[in-house]
Amino acid sequence: MAGQGSGGNVIAAICNVFLAGLGQLVQGRVLRALLFFIFTYGCYSLSMTVILFFFWPIGFIFHIWSIIDAAKYRGRGL
């Protein structure tokens, strides 16, 4: 990736809108992609139950965080 604000980061951020963690996967950060995916959709899944409904804002926060993380990724510096 060329750096923050590059076309690659914009594409990665757009990928994260549809599936949390996909943008990190596009950038080659597999572990971070798995963590964002598991935490985001884990919270969304827990919120589907009536008892644990309060987990949806936490999942939403993780989802937004994954988008911002992909957009601000700078890559490995020289």
Quaternary state of this entry equals single chain
Mean pLDDT across residues? 88
How large is the radius of gyration? 13 Å
The span between the termini is 12 Å
Strand content: under 5%
Could you say which structural class the secondary elements and strand pairing correspond to? mainly alpha
Largest sheet, in brief, is: none
Give, in order, the helices and strands: HHHH
Number of helices: 4
Please give the share of residues in helix. 55-70%
Number of domains: 1
* Anisotropy-based shape: elongated
**Unreliable residue stretches:** none
Number of strands: 0
Transmembrane segments: 6-26
Keywords: Membrane, Transmembrane, Transmembrane helix
Walk me through this protein's architecture.
By secondary structure, this protein is mostly helical. It has one domain. The protein has four helices and no strands. Keywords: Membrane, Transmembrane, Transmembrane helix. The chain crosses the membrane at residues 6-26.
Q: How would you summarize this macromolecular structure in one to three sentences?
A:
With 78 residues, the protein is mainly alpha-helical.
Helices and strands, with pairings:
Layout: H1 7-18, H2 22-26, H3 30-47, H4 56-71
Helix pairs in contact: 1-4, 3-4
What are the salient characteristics of this protein?
78 residues, transmembrane, mainly alpha, transmembrane helix, membrane
